Amino acid sequence: MGSTFGGLEIGKRAILAQQAALNTTGHNIANANTIGYTRHDAILKATNPFAYPGMNNSTAPQSIGTGVEVTELRRIRDLFLDGQYRIAQQAAGYWDAKANALTSIEGLFNEPSDSGLSMMLDRFWGSFQELAKNPDSLAFRTVVAANGKAVADSIQAISRGITQIETELTKDVSLKEGEINAAIKEVAALNKQISLLTATGQQPNDLLDKRDLLIDNLSKLVGVQATPGQNGMVDLKVGGVAIVDGMTPKTFSVNPQTGAAMADGNAVTIDGGEIKGALEMLSGTGSSSIPSLRKNLDLLAGAIASQMNSLQTSDDARNLDDIAAQTQVEKILFFVDKDDPTKPPKDAASIMVNPQLLTSPGKIAAAKSDFTSDGSNAKAMADLQFQKITINGSQTTIGDFYLSIVGQLGLDVNGAIQASNSTAAVAQQVDNRRQSISGVSLDEEMTNMVRFQQAYNAAAKYVSAVNDMLDKLINGL
């Protein structure tokens, strides 16, 4: 038979095991709303039995149970779903960054609306139609100059807005670069702590949770691949290049102007995440990237300025001063560079109406002869609305070229928003599956609490019963 005092040891082990299970349940409940927390499960196992020869068969060993112990506080986590979630986060971060940037840029164009550039161009061309009918009217000339200024101001405003968005995106990339490097260092530091604790047989569950949350966040920022290392450590790579190698963090850097990324001097190909989305907007070649939009806006401004200036300064063009002098007094550009009004604009950011035309609208060359009633040049300017010219290697009108910019931007915005919504939904769906496994269910924990509490009470009663038996045995005989 077993030891007389063995019952007390069994009872003690039962109490300690159920208490540990209760404490684990309490820890789960306490962290029910903690972001990144993984629920724990106390794994109970029967302790090794005592073996001794049986009375009826001394050669056959017999055994008697010795109680229970907690062998592990297991994190309930699905590594496959972790990987799927991080892949989904990588795509969601990429499209979210693109959708936000594109939506901001689309707001600059404000189309279609009465204050959009398309409507301003229509008013501009329309005012030349009226001037062609009333070429000697200073009032109509003033309207032409004002509408021209509105067109130039609108183009300038869009250009400034694009530059502001570019500046904000560049700052955002720099901030995210800092976040990434901070997370890289923290993951490496956690690797060191986890490795030391694991090597001594401890279970650093809460540190593992903290590290997993950092990796989740990194996956949305830059798209990382995590692979298990020794002693519970994890290695992180971006585009196949290590950014965390065991306990060693690498310095991650990004050049927003070129889109190049490095990790301790090694070139990195960024596969996804918010950083990739921002870099594609800053330095990409897509139709609605900032470089492409700026180029097209410059082409638009250049086309408007060159066509208008060509007619305004042609050899047969006449303004009211020329007509009064019966000869062309001087050639005055219609659209000029804001930094040098004697020259045509160099880009969309510098286009403006010649200040001389705003103060002296009689200098608008509406005629092609020395008669004040001649509005033929104004008519030619109005006809620019429908005239096909070569812009960026294609035959198109100024209005159609502008609408192609806005139309393509609209398509890209809608596509990015739809992709952002769908990838975010996929990430949420995968996370819901993760939480169904790893998250804390208060109903389940309450059930476990009752179960462990009852077992604890029963173990305590068992110890009391054994104590009474021993008291009777020792003191009652």
TrEMBL record:
Statement: the UniProt record of this protein carries the keyword Secreted: yes
InterPro entries: Flag_bb_rod_N, Flg_bb/hook_C_dom, FlgK, FlgK_helical
Flagellar basal body rod protein N-terminal domain location: 9-38
GO cellular component terms given for this protein: bacterial-type flagellum hook; extracellular region
Keyword Acyltransferase: no
Signal sequence bounds: none
Listed GO MF terms: structural molecule activity
Keyword set, alphabetical order: Bacterial flagellum, Cell projection, Cilium, Flagellum, Secreted
Family annotation (Pfam families): Flg_bb_rod, Flg_bbr_C, FlgK_D1
Family: Belongs to the flagella basal body rod proteins family.
Protein name as it appears in the record: Flagellar hook-associated protein 1
Organism: Neobacillus novalis
